[in-house]
Amino acid sequence: MKTLRNDRFLRALLRQSVDRTPIWMMRQAGRYLPEYRASRAKAGDFMSLCRNPELCCEVTLQPLDRYPLDTAILFSDILTIPDAMGLGLRFVEGEGPIFDKPLRTVDAIRKLSSPDPEGELRYVMDAVRTIRAALGDRLPLIGFSGSPWTLATYMIEGCGGHDFARVKRMALEEPEAFDQLARHLADTVVQYLAAQHAAGADALMVFDTWGGVLSPPAYARFSLAPMAHIVERLAELAPGVPVILFTKNGGQHLEKMAATGCAALGLDWTTSLADARRRVGDRVALQGNLDPITLFAHPDRIREETARVLADYGHGPGHIFNLGHGIVPQTPPEHAAAMIEAVIELSPPYHR
Amino acid sequence: MKTLRNDRFLRALLRQSVDRTPIWMMRQAGRYLPEYRASRAKAGDFMSLCRNPELCCEVTLQPLDRYPLDTAILFSDILTIPDAMGLGLRFVEGEGPIFDKPLRTVDAIRKLSSPDPEGELRYVMDAVRTIRAALGDRLPLIGFSGSPWTLATYMIEGCGGHDFARVKRMALEEPEAFDQLARHLADTVVQYLAAQHAAGADALMVFDTWGGVLSPPAYARFSLAPMAHIVERLAELAPGVPVILFTKNGGQHLEKMAATGCAALGLDWTTSLADARRRVGDRVALQGNLDPITLFAHPDRIREETARVLADYGHGPGHIFNLGHGIVPQTPPEHAAAMIEAVIELSPPYHR
Question: Which chain B residue is nearest to residue A214, measuring alpha carbons?
Answer without folding.
Answer: B270
